Amino acid sequence: MSPDSEQMVERVLRGEGLEVTELHSVPEQKKPVTRTNTCFPVCAVIFNSKNEVLMIQETKAVCRGSWYLPAGRMEDGETIVEALKREVKEEAGIDCQPITLLQIQEKGPNWVRFTFLAEKTGGSLKTLEQENAESMQAQWYDRDCLPPDIRKHDILTLIDAGVKYRQSPWFTVLQPVDLPCDVVCQRFLLAFTSSKGNSDEDRLWLLLSKNFQLPVAVSFEAQILAFTPKKLVEKCMPSIYEQLSVNTCGILGVQHNGRVPGQTDGVCLNTLVVLEYKEEEEESDLSSPPKLENDCFRWHEVTNQKLRTETLRRIQEGSVLPVQSL
User: Fold this and answer.
1) With CB atoms counted within 10 Å of each terminal CB, which end of the chain scores lower, N or C?
2) Which CATH architecture has domain 41-167?
3) pLDDT digits (tens, 9 = 90+) for 173-200
């Protein structure tokens, strides 16, 4: 790999952003517009010094009186972090600062929720006397004694993830990068390894475009994020696609800037993907990556030992931001 390509990969592994300058797979997709055809909710997992988690009581008629984490939809002109701080302030009465992204949940590219582990920096909990259209009140709850009337139990896994991360972080702190994007897309660190049972001897290849860029694909409408890399691999290797397993490991970085409503409402998710032969394909040559059938892409072997070791570590340890398809 060239020094420029290596630097690009290093930046993605560090959670930094890269400007989206070209798209390598562009299915038809309506331009994302916040709160019109695209919804990016945010959610906060916040603990106090007693390890109690912050909960808010809902005020909407359909779920009045039930409890949930502070959460809500991004508004026009907001960044992801600005939306988080606003929702926590409106619903819980406190100021907060994000510590790290904790999990991404999605129902296709038109609905992606960003959950943060965050911390209180000021303010005071909303009381019943302060009830408004946003919430009734906010309280701290012990993880083992949560209120019985929880609106949706999907938050339980988020709370558990927050507890786990505070005890033993399995990926480095990750914050959204302020870079504009006009589509919902994924940039892939798509890797193939030849395993010899010894990580010091494993070889590693990454898929690059013919212009030596990491491939960027527009996410398919109404499809889960794990589907998009599969379509890219099928485009690159159509004749052997059925012999391959395309595994999305997780997210390495999030790029978003929604400050120009209707024009920068997209998001780019830098995604770690591993390509393998299926176990039943015993005759496949595992010592080199599958042959490409598309001139727009090429394999490049990572010979920089530090870069190779770090990429393999992230793959083997699962040191990535989790993504869950709902």
Assistant:
1) C
2) Alpha-Beta Complex (3.90)
3) 999 999 999 999 999 999 999 865 556 6
